[in-house]
Design goal:
- The complex is a heterodimer of chains A (246) and B (224).
- Chain A has 246 residues and is of the alpha/beta class.
- Helix content of chain A is 34%, strand content 25%.
- A 6-stranded mixed β-sheet of chain A has the order 6-7-8-3-9-10, with helices on both faces.
- In chain A, helix 3 packs across helix 4 and helix 5 runs parallel beside helix 6.
- By secondary structure, chain B is an all-alpha fold.
- Chain B has one domain.
- In chain B, helix 5 packs across helix 6 and helix 6 packs parallel to helix 8.
- Classes of the chains: A alpha/beta (246), B mainly alpha (224).
- Chains A and B meet through helix 2 and helix 3 of A and helix 1 and helix 4 of B.
Chain lengths: 246, 224
């Protein structure tokens, strides 16, 4: 993995706001994630979780505020930022007509991954798709596609992994496999920011949880001594008793 | 090869590979272009005395409409499964993505043109397979692919994208089509390339202008 100076937080957002016309989705999000942390960002539908992640992934520009990935400003050279992040979304970013191997080879060339063929073989084995490497992705189940999507996201060994509800649409078995795989990725000193609305899953997988409501981070706590009941109570208090859309 | 060109080539190769596997875009464009010329052939009852006058228009209308079919599919493929976001997240300049997609579109259009020209030649009983016509076709197709790729990216995420693309593209492509038709008509009438130089210059100017504009604006077009 790319070595990062420890003095920089892996992710830092200051006063991030985003408006679509007159509708303000984010209203000054402040968030700091240290190197190696696994933060689960909770919030109901429409809270702005995906918008926030898209801003960090350089796919969208904030209306106000600034953010940094490993000390690199998002409003600077975004190519350097993009080299440091991998994104797994409920969309796979995979080409259905290409095989698993061809998809990874294509992205690997754009990321200029060294020893690409060895890296592809290694990742396909890790996500359990090596035997299916010559099959077109459209023949894969949703769970298999999502596993390949994780391989695509970590192909260039990014120190920061952004996960946008990665288990959406997966059955229980596929979701469990995905969680195991993500936990494995988390043990590699990678910083992970995952959005979800699954409280139990968020508490189990992450080292810290934050709740995004009303366009701001309203609650932030380490999970070490946090019970699911406490988390659920905080979530209910902030989300279910507060209007989501201003 | 520089890293930018390696990335451009990777995108072109990916598009060609996907097309070779499905053959959807090329076959659709080819069937359309051949059907168009058959229909024009019967609709205008192209006799020897009037064929030379209408042939350049028939040919370019067929090329342009077939081109739109290919362009429509170009970014729809990327929008599917969020692949465009995947591309935009790679550490390459957005202009690299534009040139990669543009070159892919250009290759598909030129393949269709190259297959269609001999067929047109036989059906219209005109000598269309010649280097001066080929030059005009390449220049016209380059400009159309250049501006079309930009508009294709612009409309890929709109609701009525199949309709939006021609609505936006045709008015902008009008000078290009006009110059291509006039230049083709000129050389079919026996004029040399020197005599249609004004139209050729317009084609070249259009190509340079719109490739530059597309290069400069693509970043804003794909920005959400």
């Amino acid at each position: 993995m790319t070595s990062q100076a420890k003095r920089w937080p892996a992710v830092e957002a200051r006063g991030i706001s985003k408006a679509f016309g007159r509708y303000r989705v984010l209203r000054g999000v402040d968030l700091r994630i240290e190197q190696g942390e696994f933060l689960a960002l909770l919030g109901p539908n429409g809270a702005g979780k995906t918008t926030f992640l898209r801003i960090l992934a350089t796919l969208s520009r904030p209306s106000e505020g600034r953010a940094w990935i490993n000390g690199q400003p998002l409003d600077g050279d975004t190519r350097r930022v993009r080299q440091q992040i991998g994104l797994v979304s409920h969309q796979t970013f995979l080409y259905g007509d290409l095989t698993a191997e061809e998809n990874l080879r294509f992205y690997g060339r754009l990321y200029r991954v060294p020893a690409l063929e060895e890296r592809i073989a290694e990742l396909l084995q890790r996500v359990g798709l090596y035997e299916r490497r010559h099959d077109p992705v459209r023949t894969f189940s949703r769970g298999m596609q999502q596993r390949l999507s994780i391989a695509r996201a970590v192909l260039h060994d990014p120190p920061v992994l952004l996960l946008d509800e990665p288990d959406t649409g997966l059955d229980q078995q596929a979701a469990r496999m995905l969680r195991e795989l993500l936990s494995l990725m988390g043990t590699e000193q990678r910083t992970i920011l995952m959005t979800t609305h699954q409280l139990e899953r968020a508490r189990e997988m992450s080292t810290r949880v934050a709740i995004l409501a009303g366009g701001q981070i309203r609650w932030d706590s380490p999970t070490a001594h946090l019970s699911t009941a406490e988390l659920a109570e905080a979530y209910m208090e902030l989300v279910e008793r507060r209007p989501t859309h201003p | 090869m520089s890293s930018a060109w390696q990335a451009v080539w990777a995108i072109v190769k990916k598009d060609i590979l996907a097309e070779l596997r499905t053959k959807e875009t090329l076959s659709m464009m080819l069937i359309f272009v051949l059907l168009a010329v058959f229909i024009f052939n019967f609709a205008f009852d192209l006799r020897v005395e009037n064929v030379r006058e209408v042939a350049p228009g028939v040919m370019w209308v067929a090329f342009v409409f077939a081109g739109v079919l290919g362009l429509n599919r170009s970014f729809i493929q990327e929008a599917d499964k969020g692949c465009l976001d995947g591309l935009l997240m790679t550490p390459v300049e957005r202009s690299v993505i534009y040139f990669g997609k543009m070159l892919g579109n250009l290759i598909f259009m030129l393949v269709v043109d190259a297959i269609a020209l001999p067929v047109f030649s036989v059906l219209l009983n005109l000598a269309l397979v010649r280097w001066d016509i080929a030059l005009i076709v390449v220049l016209g197709t380059l400009g159309f692919a250049g501006v079309g790729t930009l508009f294709s990216a612009m409309t890929a995420n709109t609701r009525a994208r199949e309709v939006m693309l021609p609505l936006l593209l045709f008015p902008v492509a009008l000078p290009l089509v006009l110059a291509a038709v006039k230049a083709t008509a000129g050389v079919l009438d026996g004029a040399g390339l020197r005599e249609v130089a004004n139209w050729l210059n317009l084609l070249i100017g259009y190509d340079v202008a719109f490739l530059t504009i597309s290069y400069l604006t693509f970043d804003y077009v794909v920005e959400s």
